[in-house]
Amino acid sequence: MIIEDPGVLDKINEHLPEQIRAWGFVRVIRSFNSKTMCDSRIYEYLLPTYALMDPSEANAEAARTLEFAHRQVPEVSAEEMAKKRAYRVPKERLQFVRDALAKYVGTHDFRNFTVARGCTESNSKRYIHSFTASDPMVIQDGEWISLKVKGQSFMLHQIRKMVGLVVLMARANAPLSLIDTLFSGPRVNVPKAPGLGLLLEQPVFESYNRKAAQQRKDAASDPVTFEPYVEEIDKFKQQYIYDAIVDTEMSDRVFDWWVQSTEIYPEPYTYVNAEGTIPEDAVVTPEREHAWQTQMREMHAAERAKNQAVESDDSDNGEQSADEN
Questions:
Q1: Which pLDDT tens digit goes with each residue over 12-61?
Q2: Kind plus residue range of the DSSP H or E element containing 182
Q3: In 3D, which of 233, 230, 212, 232 has the Cα closest to residue 222?
């Protein structure tokens, strides 16, 4: 790359899709490896605040009175979704979310926040530098908050499960001490928040920057950092990432379906309660895990069959209209 060319970035971006941008470049040592020299990462999770609304009494009634096989996540009308998008999170509930996220900061055993296979007490400890929630922002008439977590490393599904637990706790008015209990307590089933809202914000090279600054006098002026490009990156995220997430949620109601599914099928999450106690039936055993997975496969199969039937009806109606025309 000819870095002396002042227009080199523009020339690079001319050959890239609009969804991929080069913001800048810096000189690094010959042995630099972006994977091995990254000492922490910042992830962002974009969450609609209506996911923090009080639970549905109708869903709770269905969960109490209907057999598992007879329950279904209810359809939501356009009017109902409009009401949810009009929801604005109260200051007290947002503060609860911030306090709950802060409980993750530090070194903890996150065995309850990843898959069970291969996870032991000796390999499930992780260090979280920070976990914050932004002020609410309105995107396409809906209110969203940006959650940002910085950590040395993460296990499979860890961030989605950390977010999923906080959402359920906020809705159930569970005590913050529940998070401490899950760090040291028995294994339970922590729900994964949808993958739709999760994105890598940036890799962080703090250790490399300090070491390079000591080795070269001019290194301090060329740290590997994204800070000079924050404004451009934020505009890019709004145009190509935030809007895409919001559009997908509006068309597929991913978050709404996830929240409602935890209400319609609450059996694994009975430990998320106002007392903060973990009942025996919430503790994961091989038998309960197998039974739950079987039930969930049946549920997903029923949902797919229902969607296919709806698509078939729409297709038949379209063909009928064409024939009539």
A1: 999 999 999 999 998 888 888 999 999 999 999 999 999 999 999 999 99
A2: helix 177-184
A3: 212
**Torsion angle, alpha carbons of 222, 228, 232, 237, to 10:** 90
Nearest to 26 by CA among 202, 231, 221: 221
CA-nearest of 149, 155, 152, 150 to 123 is 155
| Nearest by Cα to 39 from 148, 123, 150 | 150
Please check whether residue 265 is in contact with residue 258, taking contact to mean a CB–CB distance below 8 angstroms.
no
Token pair belonging to 282: 């919430």
Q: For a pLDDT cut of 70, what percent of the chain falls above it?
A: 90
- As a whole number of angstroms, the distance between CA 271 and CA 284 comes to 11
Instruction: Report, in angstroms and rounded to the nearest whole number, the Rg of the chain calculated over CA atoms.
Output: 23
45 neighbors 131 (Cβ within 8 angstroms): no
Token pair in block for residue 92: 């007290």
